[in-house]
Each structure stands twice: as C-alpha cells, then as structure tokens.
Amino acid sequence: MNARHEKTEAKNDEATKKQNTVEQDEKKIEKDLNTEIKKVQDEAKKHQEKLLRVLAEFENFKKRVTKEQEEQSRYANEKLLEALLPTLDDFDRVLNHIPESSSEEVKSLSQGVEMIRKGLSKSLERFQLKEIDAEEKLFDPDQHEAISMIESDEHKPNTVVAVHRKGYFLGDRLLRPAMVSVSKKGG
Question: By C-alpha distance, which of 125, 27, 42 is closest to 81?
C-alpha cells in the first residue's frame, strides 16, 4: 500500500505542480492582457483627445470662414455703396439748384428727379445705408467734418448750421462723414 500511496502522492505532487504552473501561466497571461488592455485604452484615449482637438479646430475653421465670407460680402457692399454716394450727391446738387420761380415744366422735372433720388435712397437703405441727420445738431467730430465756422447769435456754439455734403453710416459704422458748417459766437 505504500507503493500505491507513494504513486498517488507522486501523482498528486505532479498534479499540484501542473496546477501551480497553470495558475502561474494564467496569472502571467492575465497580467499581459491587463497590460495590453491598458496600452489599448491609453492609445484610444489619445486618439479620442486628438479627434476632439481636430473637431474643435474644424468648428473654429468653419466659424472663421463664415466670418470672412460675411466680411467679404460687407466689404463688397461697402465699396459699391461708396461708389454710389457721388450719384446721391449729384441728385442733391440738382435739387438744391432749381430756382423756386421755375416754370411748371422745370418743377415737374424736379419732382421726377426727387422721386428717383428717394427711390435710390430707399433701395440703398435695404443694404443698411443710413443718412446722417446733421442739420441743427451739435457738432460731432465722429460724424461731421467741419469745413467752415460761421458766426451766429441764432444758434448755440458748435451747432451744425449748414450741410454741404451728406454723411452716411453703413449699419453702425461711419461710411462717410457729413461736410458741415458749424456755428460760433458772434463777435
């Protein structure tokens, strides 16, 4: 029975060794897998962060392109509107130089010119062109360009008494200042 017992014990020792080896192999495999999983997770995190940065950069790019397109459109409108201002000035000069005592034919022509001028002004207002209301206003160097000073007891000092050329805003930005004469105290 001893021999049998020794054989059984030897088998048990061998089985235990195999079991220990299997457990050690499993632990090594588990450790290797955990290390590999950690590497993959770290790499995935890096790729996710990179993707988020690229997405943020793309969103910023889209916003920048949209803003640039709006500015180009506005700049194009600004140049066009600046080019049309002399035409408005010409209409104003014609209307200001028609004598009151003109014939009916001239008055009729004057009314037609005035209607065309108003129509053009209305069309330009749709592009945010606004006339500066300067007459009888306090002089503002941000909106007015003084070309002369006129002594006056009828007006407070620094009041616009005459507009020689109208000024305009494009939206909230000054496109062209109004050329004006400004009052000063009479001497």
Answer: 125
Rounded to an integer, what distance in angstroms lies between the CA atom of residue 21 and that of residue 100?
Answer: 118
Q: What is the 3-state secondary structure (H, E, C) of 47-88?
A: HHHHHHHHHHHHHHHHHHHHHHHHHHHHHHHHHHHHHHHHHH
- Rounded to whole angstroms, the Cα distance separating 156 from 137 reads 10
The answer to whether residues 172 and 130 touch, using CB atoms and an 8 Å cutoff, is no
Domain residue extents for the chain = 129-187
Q: Which architecture, in CATH terms, is 129-187?
A: Roll (2.30)
- Higher pLDDT residue, 77 or 64? 64
- Please give the model's pTM, rounded to 2 decimal places: 0.62
pLDDT at 10: 67
* The one-letter amino acid at 118: K
- In the numeric block, the tokens 């060794």 are attached to 17
173: its two tokens: 């930005």
Nearest to 155 by CA among 180, 185, 187, 134: 185
